[in-house]
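Good morning,

Attaching, inline, the backbone tokens for the sequence recovery test we're adding to the shared suite. The designed sequence is right after.
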């Protein structure tokens, strides 16, 4: 489990990305297609055609970092393309995504209806 800061900016690159790309290629995608700064401290998530692998890219203030995660079973839930090519997530949603869980509509705790 990786601890994520609560104010962390996270962006999902919608649609399919070529998973042969490394850090430099993904950073160029962030600049050109997502119109974001890959060195600004935000985390960018990419998924390929096979839905069991994702790559995360971020700059930690010293250098570019990349995390690759492959699910042993199942697929990562991913949105199709949007007009901006990206959607924003919270750090909690990213943690759910990395666990292979549904991140779009997490189950809310049920509120008790009666006190007794």
């Amino acid at each position: 489990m990786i601890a994520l800061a609560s104010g962390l900016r996270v962006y999902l690159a919608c649609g399919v990305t070529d998973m042969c790309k490394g850090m430099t290629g993904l950073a160029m995608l962030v600049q050109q297609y997502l119109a974001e700064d890959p060195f600004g401290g935000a985390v960018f998530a990419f998924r390929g055609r096979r839905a069991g692998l994702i790559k995360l890219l971020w700059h930690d203030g010293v250098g570019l970092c990349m995390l690759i995660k492959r699910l042993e079973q199942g697929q990562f839930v991913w949105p199709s393309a949007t007009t901006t090519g990206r959607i924003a997530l919270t750090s909690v949603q990213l943690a759910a995504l990395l666990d292979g869980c549904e991140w779009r509509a997490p189950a809310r705790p049920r509120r008790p209806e009666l006190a007794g």
